[in-house]
Each structure stands twice: as structure tokens, then as C-alpha cells.
Fold this sequence. Notes:
The structure holds two protein chains of two kinds.
Chain A: E1 3-6, E2 10-13, E3 17-22, H1 34-42, E4 50-57, E5 62-69, E6 75-79
Antiparallel strand pairs in A: 1-2, 3-4, 4-5, 5-6
Chain B: H1 2-10, E1 31-37, H2 41-54, E2 59-62, H3 71-74, E3 78-79, H4 86-100, H5 102-106, E4 117-121, H6 124-139, E5 144-147, H7 149-155, E6 170-174, E7 178-179, H8 182-195, E8 199-201, E9 206-212, E10 215-221, E11 224-233, H9 239-246, E12 253-262, E13 272-275, E14 280-284, E15 290-296, H10 308-321, E16 330-340, E17 347-349, E18 356-360, H11 370-382, H12 398-401
Parallel strand pairs in B: 1-2, 1-11, 2-8, 4-13, 11-18
Antiparallel strand pairs in B: 3-7, 4-6, 5-6, 9-10, 10-11, 12-15, 12-16, 13-14, 14-15, 17-18
Helix pairs in contact in B: 2-8, 2-11, 4-11
Amino acid sequence: MKIMNCPLNGPRNISEFVYxxxxxxxxxxxxxxxSAWADYVxxxxxxxxxxxxxxxxxxxxYWFIAERHNGSDEITRxxxxxxxxxxxxxxxxxxxxx
Amino acid sequence: xPFGLLKYGINADYPFDKEADLPPPSELKARYDVxxxxxxxxxxxxxxxxxxxxxxxxxxxxxxGYLGGGNTARNTAVIRSNYxxxxxxxxxxxxxxxxxxxSNEFDFNIMYSQRGxxxxxxxxxxxxxxxxxxxxxxxxxxxxxxxSPSDIAKLVPTLxxxxxxxxxxxxxxxxxxxTARHDAVAWxxxxxxxxxxVELHQLTEVTDVxxxxxxxxxxxxxxxxxxxxxxVQAVAGHSALMAQKAGFKLPLVAYPLQAMVTLPVKxxxxxxxxxxxxxxxxxxxxxxxxxxxxxxxxxxxYNSRSSLPLKESLIASAVEMFPFLSEMRLLxxxxxxxxxxxxxxxxxxxxxxxxxxIDAGWGTWGFKATxxxxxxxxxxxxxxxxxxxxxxxxxxxxxxxxxQVNEMGATAASH
Lengths: 98, 415
């Protein structure tokens, strides 16, 4: 049984977790080009090595970030998303021409 | 044919050596007109059609392991064309038609067996989606229809129509559905290609792609540098890693896909049966083995390891569909690495490098496309970069133009 350490609930069976994609830096949503946005949406880091990923502890609906090796499947650390996402993003649309 | 067999049977000089499938290994030449990275089904099929239809025989297929030893040997050998989009249906239908005649074309038995494929719907939403798929498929010349549970019971009497308390509401019955021996497909293409002068170099790993001014000039291998006029990449699960060596990125995520096969038993199951809700498909090969396949792993990994939870859930689903299978013994289990695109369609055609063509993003649907993929990629190479109409929808730049071809509902895996 593979165990993942949830920052909120402690070590739990991996079957309790849902993968949520890689952590990526969002481009400026008001001014970025279509191709920059496409890059953000469709492209992930594909090298073999450590990757930062979103994971959900499904029973408690808690989202957090895990660092995992995508070749050996070793989970090196897990932490609360506040460590990276500390600023609020407001989705203002006024500057986008309709 | 029987007399020929009898003659061989009593002949001490069995003509085996004279009919070797592949020529012995040779030295790498310094330059080839076309270098194909990856000696799986797609790579050797491309080489075969280049030689057969376009007279291009100065071709090397470079394979880091052995012929057809990657995902060509790891898929579950399903051939079908009952996809969702017109683009997908047209493409896979062309593949089904090529498969039908492949044994004759090769003079080599690929054990092609057209038994029909049945997909089960357990929800109203799936029934609606099946109705759409049946109509799209019929429109493009496929034989697909929606059938009722009573028809399903006649077609597959051994099937449990209430698996895991998910009653079967309808079935998508695809008469063109078939299976074949996947290894034999690669062997047949490789034999046909090498007989026409193509070189297949096994144990030859491409470690780097050499480029100059937006063009590829050759590849670095563990056996030295090979110059190339054109390079075709067909490396399945490692596509994104190979593209990085060439200096561009692909919108792919690598997931393991696990499958297994039982010991052979007497034939009891003619159609290929899959359940849309249980994420499981079951078929009996022409050799009598029962193949179980399912969805990809729940998270990405560049590793063909197996995991007990996935095997357990796959077996649980298979046993729900055919309860008596719980008595069966497993023969083998394995995994392959699938390169998934976000729209569940492949990536074929041009790349940012002028003379470097891509054949990737085959996720869980690569085997069934082997013939048409080889044929269209060969046309692309021979024409010097004119993308054949059939594969234009699958170009790499669809991801920057937001022109995806959404086949998500039509694959057996992870939807």
C-alpha cells in the first residue's frame, strides 16, 4: 500500500487522494497572448525528475501540494498551498476587449 | 497449403533458415535519406509504406530495445473505429480497412479476427453518447449500432447484465471491431520493409537529435552519429522526452497503463466486450487467453511498474462482468507508458523543425492506428512535408489554435 502524507490529515492510503495536475505559474490573465495561455493550459513539465503537483485528499476535500519524482514515484514532501499561493488573484475582466 | 505443411513435416531440411524473417544486423551507414526513431509498429509501418509506395528505401529504423518490444507488445490489441468525432472516425476506419487485408499483403498471418466489439452503457448519458457515436460511425461507412440488453444477452450469453449493480441499459455494437496478434503486425511490417531494403537497427538508442538552423541534420546514437535527410519520431511513451532532445515540447502527460492475461481456455467469448462505467474491457484472443485491460493509472509516471490496487480493481471489474472468470489463473501482467494528450487524439505531422516529423500522443489508442498511421506518415515524408488530409486535424499546432479533436468519450481509458 502506498502512503501519502497529507499536510492536514497525516499519512493516508494513496487511494484516498486524487491527482490534480502540475503546479504551474499562471500568466497574466488580462493581457497574455493566446499562445501563452495555450502553453499554460496544455503543456506540463515532461522531464523525468521532481515535479510539484496538486493533490486532493478526497474524504476531507483538502487541496495541497506534493513534490514527487515522476520516474520513481517517490513522494519527497507535501505542504499546504499557502506556502506558494500567498497572494489573492482577482479575476477582473474590464481590460479585455469584448 | 496442407500438402505444403505435410512436405515440411517429413522433410529433414525444414526450410527455416532460408526464410528468416529479418536480415542479420549490419553496420550503421553514415547517412540515410530517412531515419525513423522507434522500431515499434508505427515506425516499421512508416518504413514499409515508404519503401512500398514511394520507392524510398535508404531508410533506417533505430530501435533502442528490440523490434516491437515497447507499447506494440503491451497494448491489448483492440482494432475498432467507433470513435466520436468525424475526424477520428474517418482516420480509424481507414486503419480498420487496411488491417482487414494485412495478412494477405504480408503473406504472413497476423491472426486478424473480426469478431465485433461491444461497449456497455450503464447510464442514460452514456446511451446518448453511444447514439451519437453510432450515427457518426454509420455516416462514415462504419458498421455500428445501438442494441438492447436482450440483444446483448444473445450476443454474449456469459455476460452479467447487472455488473456491480450497474444494470446494462444498452450496448454499442461495432461489427468492424477486431483483434490481431500485435507482435505479428510489427514483424510483418518489419519483414516487408527489410525485404525492400530498409535497415532495422535494434539495440540502437538515439541519445540526441542534431539540429542546425531550424533543421534536423542527424541523430546521435550509442553506435555513433547518423546523418539524416528527414527524421520521423515514433517513440510512444517517451515522445515528450525525445522531442526535448530535438528542442521542442509536446503537450503530453505520461501515464502507466496496466493490463493482464489469463491462461488459455476453450473459446467462449467471441466479441470484444468493454464497460464504460467499470473501465474494463475483456476479450479472448485467438489463442484462448482472456485479456483484461482498463483505464490508465490515476496519476502520471514514467515507469512501467505494476500496482496492486489497479490490478485488484481491474480484476474486480472483469469478475463483475464475467463472474466465472474468478476461477481463472493469470498468466502474465504488465504495464506500458502511454503518452496522453488532453483531447485523447494523436499528434501527427509537422514540428517546429522543418524536416522532423512527429508521430506521438498515442495514449491508449495506438495499436489500432498502426497501418493508417504508417501510410499517412510515409505520404508526409515522401511529399516533403505536405500533410495528408486525413491527419491534418491531428497537427501539433492545434493546441495553440484551440482546435482540439475531443475523443475523450470514445476511449476505454480514464474518462
